[in-house]
Predict the 3D structure of the following.
Amino acid sequence: MSHGEPLIIVVSGPGGVGKGTIVEELVKRDPKLWLSRSWTTRAQRVGEPADAYVFATRAEFEARIAVGGFLECTEFLGNYYGTPNPEPIDALDLVLEIEVDGARQVTELREDAVLIFVLPPSRAEQERRLRGRGDADQQVAERLRKAEDEEPVGMALADYVVVNDDLEQTIDEMLAIISHCRNNPNRVRTRVGRDQ
Ligand code: 5GP
């Protein structure tokens, strides 16, 4: 990777860990970041902004897959999610907030991508956050179960693992990681042979 080339920062982690809030704050605080808007076939949640995703039907989503319109996409708990092929915005660094299968795809496509995996401080706190955003009992149970599979995979893939205990501290740590990566464009070599 040469100096000045935009970074791809992948923020991943189990549901309810606070990824959405984290990436929102990152792009608010760092004007050199932009957040990709994903497509999904899941229904809009009550109270969720209409622009949280591009909400699509399965047919629309599959039509876009067929024309190679996604950087990555996957099926997660019965719905499609995908990152549309990014249109670079000037020299801004791209932030993706995605689950681990998509994160794996991006790291395979782009070895210079930075993967930050976010963990909840505990399962109980994760559950509290999932309930707090209004997920139904069944969704909470599914997402907690799914987290057990996602965490070992995400931690093995990750360049950095951050525990989101205190939001402010998490944001500071992530801004420091991003700054470090900008200042060390050859850091990609450190990914090879890491022993996590
Ligand atoms: P939710 O339904 O809670 O909004 O999202 C479910 C999971 O899908 C979360 O882990 C979220 O990060 C992930 N996700 C959101 N957008 C994308 C995407 O474009 N691609 C992939 N692979 N996962 C996504």
Remarks:
- The CA atoms of residues 8 and 113 lie 5 Å apart.
- Helices lie at 19-29, 58-66, 100-109, 123-132, 137-157, 167-183, 188-191.
- Residues 15, 19, 38, 42, 72, 74, 76, 81-83, 97-99, 101-102 surround guanosine-5'-monophosphate (CB under 6 Å).
- The two ends are 23 Å apart (CA to CA).
